[in-house]
Amino acid sequence: MDxxxxxxxxxxxxxxxxxxVLAFLGFFVMLPNVANADLIAxxxxxxxxxxxxxxxxxxxxxxxxxxxxxxxxxxxxYRGSQLWVNDxxxxxxKCDIYEVDATTYSLTRTIVVPDGLCISRIxxxxxxxxxxxRLLVSPINSAPLxxxxxxxxxxxxxxxxxxxxxxxxxxxxxxxxxxxxxWRDGIWVVDIDTGLTIEHxxxxxxxxxxxxxxxxxxxxxxxxxxxxxxxIAQGYGVVQYDVSPIDSxxxxxxxxxxxxxxxxxxxxxxxxxxxxxxxxxxxSSRVRNSDGTILTGTGLESVNYYYGSAALAPDGVFAxxxxxxxxxxxxxxxxxxxxxxxxxxxxxTIDLSASYDFISLRGTPSNPAVAVADADGDGIADEADLCxxxxxxxxxxxxxxxxxxLDTDSDGVINDADTCPGTVxxxxxxxxxxxxxxxDADGDGxxxxxxxxxxxxxCTGVDICIGFDxxxxxxxxxxxxGCDDDDNDGPLGDTDADGVNNQTDQCVGTTDGAxxxxxxxxxxxxxxxxxASNHHGLYVNCIAHTSKQFEKADLISRIERQQIKRAxxxxxxxxxxxxxxxxxxxxxxxxxxxxxxxxxxxxxxxxxxxxxxxxxxxxxxxxxxxx
Length: 627
Known about the structure:
There is one protein chain. Among the domains are: 353 residues, Methylamine Dehydrogenase, Chain H (7 Propeller), CATH 2.130.10; 69 residues, no CATH class. Helix 4 packs antiparallel against helix 5. The protein is α+β, with helices and mostly antiparallel strands. It is 15% helix and 23% strand. The protein is rod-shaped.
């Protein structure tokens, strides 16, 4: 399979859908971002002999630009791939990966994959993982899938499923999924980060696929992505799948498959920019429309290609080689033919048979569109990338958007900037992606606790009574009614329920049902109350006067006034109790008795004194005279 890098102008001209840098692997690649973008790279040499070379061909002039010697000792193998990444070309051959500087056409290093990772001694398809700067390599007929750290050149096992005879690999555009095609065990899908198996399809469950003319792959040889969701698998026949169900945990859906033996086995598949599929077959070739129907009259169907391959160049010209087969219907070893993809007319021939007997242009990406300008390195061309600033390493969808850049709730704010995911469809949001219900659930204008935005209505503050209107606070104590245990204890409350709030009520505690004035005071409140009065007359006069004022103010009727006056007059308010009166009399009586006793005592004393002296004299005299 090939890695084709197309110029931006070409992509605009053909209005191509995007595919990823990680999409396809193979012998032939297009050079991106260079003045002459109509270049292809092909591995060339004498089959199973040294040296191994890389040939750079200009399809516009049908000429060889450069011959680059990769190894003087390595034997040229019919399997292997080229991958052109920016200004570097990677070539796989046997257990070696050659790194070539595409600006100077010079070999910069050779990366040797250890025997333990190159069990079959044949490395094939390549893919570049821009987010981790790794090269992914698929060995033939053996596990594991290999990852090479391009910074260090160190290879390691990426995935080792129990697949049987892997033959081709392609990375699904915009994802972290590698698809590996086997000879008779269908297609395996693995996560290129974890190496874990995601899906296994296109095979007979419980056994190897053995027939064609079904959606089961037999003799698997090549994989091509027409776009991020459309996969074409080549073997003894062709099958096209919709792989998008994998994202929902479901198996791919078969779109169409060729008839048994139709076109024979093919080593490679190429898809034109308008969706036609070219199969350089072993026995004969086929050109198919995107729906799988055969297109006749191209002149290519009579040509056979034993391990032949084809590749599409940016100028609308595709190159074809016959691999190592010679014969009447073959174009011959070491020969490349160039055709116009629009009408399949021959544009030129490049004969390298004097130098090489084997040239491989294996495979092309479906709808050849590997990104040329990809500023964020997510594998999606800038021209088609809806999210041009994807963070390094983030997996993206076919539009070049990572999960953080998507707008999952379709509110117009991407996930990365949306602080309120899950907005209800149709709800208006602010610049942070928050609707009013998401930040102010009860709609009272106060933001919910932890709210990260104000919503379209721009809520403020913090909601202290969620589920209720914080603006409702009848007693003015700062606690909304919905969360207030006592709606009357605040300054705006009415503790005595007289209709005057506590803040202005001058007589809190008025008796229930009593008439009151504007200050919240009843007649009894104004007169000090019965219990506080200590003079009945004054209390009755106050009641009479105040009730008259209440009558004038229409707070009570005349009859009510009379009733209030009579009640006050009959009351004991201000009167002393009988006990108090008795106590008063006792005190008075005590004083009299004392006083009388005093007087009597005084009188007695006085008379005693005089009596004493009088009696004494008299008595003494009497006594004395008796003697």
